Amino acid sequence: MDIKVNEINHTIFREYDIRGIINKTLKYSDAFLIGRAFASKIFNSQGITVAVGRDGRLTSKMLSTHLIKGLNKSGANVIDIGCGPTPMLYFAREFLNSDAAIMVTGSHNPPDHNGFKIMIGSNSFFGKKLLDLKKIILEGMFYNGKGKTTIKSVFEDYKKALIEKSYEIKPFNVIWDCGNGSSGELITQLVKELPGQHKVIFGEIDGNFPNHHPDPTEPKNLESLIKEVKKTNSDLGIAFDGDGDRIGVVTKRGVIVPGDIVTAFLAGGIIKKNRRAPIILDIKSSDSAFDSIKKQSGNPIFWKTGHSLIKEKLKKSGSLLAGEMSGHIFIRDNWYGFDDAPYSALRLLHECGRRNYDLEKFYEETNISFSSPEIRIDCKEILKFKIVNKIKEKIKKINMYSIIDIDGIRAKNKHGWWLIRPSNTQSCIIARAEGKSKNDLNVLIKEIEKFLKEENFYWNCKPYLI
Predict the structure, then answer these.
(1) What is the fold, at CATH topology level, of the domain defined by 169-366?
(2) Per CATH, is 372-464 categorized as 3.30.310.50?
(3) CB-based burial of residue 210 (10 Å sphere; 0-12 exposed, 13-18 middle, 19+ buried)?
(4) Is this model's pTM higher than 0.90 or not?
(5) How confident is the model over 55-68, as pLDDT tens digits?
């Protein structure tokens, strides 16, 4: 065992993954230490194998190189699958039956950010387990070993599985926006095998993200997609985030369909085969999506936000489908249950065919309320949990609300509901509201402002009033 005291920035260890800013909070040498610590933590005298993938960021290849060296030095054998979307790495872990998997990715964050998503078996490696890695690094409690690295592509195997397991897909005209992220090469090749007419924009993998930021939850990042959909009179527009585990969807009229409504739409075919099937929505999701799933004879369940937490709940509940507002969609019906935007896109096309393409009509009929966007309110890291907890305790003493407190506080009254929760990935408080009318929505947003102000935290709600 090698024992050497090390330093590493504490802030990179987040709730769901490891994430930082290159050469500020995250160094290339940190990747080596993370590799050593992870291999040491899961050390097995019989030998361990870790699949490693990376996205297309400019820093990902170097981080991956250092990570692999660290894994090898602590005895882990590595299968390097190269550059591609995060779900391809998840698929590789299943397909190659590796003991674990690590993806080098900055997800949807700015170009100078990067990090690591980790799995052991088919389970996410998050929360306290990530803190255990930090402890191993700080104490330098590393195993010594001589692992080997094998380079193996699963690109064709993944592409083949996507098509074979997506059920029947009817011809549609679709615009695909890869945002210069790591899904570009896959989607460019995949659509050649689909019926209908398909056009890929920004399919070149470029870590500078020259056309727009790779986050489909931000409407401004979908402007090029919407323009192209309208220009070509296409049926649908589909976008991906930087590492291909989140999906964005726009209709032929350019209407953005949020992740919870996409989940409710996908639920139809699954519920048809499995009546009363549990369908999981994250706590930020709308009552509109929740009620739609009930109307389709499903059993909707609200759960904590976060891809690792949702995956864990999916397994424990036996659910075949889960979705987040952010566009993470998890399908366990004929697939593996991890968040996979390319597979979700194909299942969306299948469901459009099954319903004779009524996504636009479905959204209009489902989205009968008035809701705010996801509101990110900047807040110091040390304050965000304290503020939300104080509001939570205060709300519990007021009889005018029914509450869900599994993740922050979701408070419902005669006007609708509002949510306040501390972000697990950013220094901010997340807020959202949904009202039965425009006036109801304004009342709810003002309530959020009021409760924050009572904790001496001042936020101006006026930009979000309608």
Answers:
(1) Alpha-D-Glucose-1,6-Bisphosphate; Chain A, domain 3 (3.40.120)
(2) yes
(3) exposed
(4) yes
(5) 999 999 999 999 99
Q: Is 40 a catalytic residue?
A: no
3-state secondary structure of 118: strand
Alpha helix (H) ranges present in 143-277? 155-164, 184-190, 223-232, 259-273
Domain map (residue ranges) of the chain: 2-153, 169-366, 372-464
Give the relative orientation of helices 259-273 and 341-354 as an angle to the nearest 10 degrees. Answer: 60
Token duo for residue 194: 């689909």
| Cα 283 to the center of its chain, rounded Å | 14
C-alpha span between 382 and 422 (Å, rounded): 11
- Residue 343 corresponds to which tokens in the numbers above? 């597979």
Q: Are 347 and 165 in contact (CB under 8 A)?
A: no
Q: Which fold has domain 2-153?
A: Alpha-D-Glucose-1,6-Bisphosphate; Chain A, domain 3 (3.40.120)
Q: pLDDT digits over 148-166, tens only?
A: 999 999 999 999 999 999 9
Catalytic residue (choose from 64, 107, 224, 286): 107
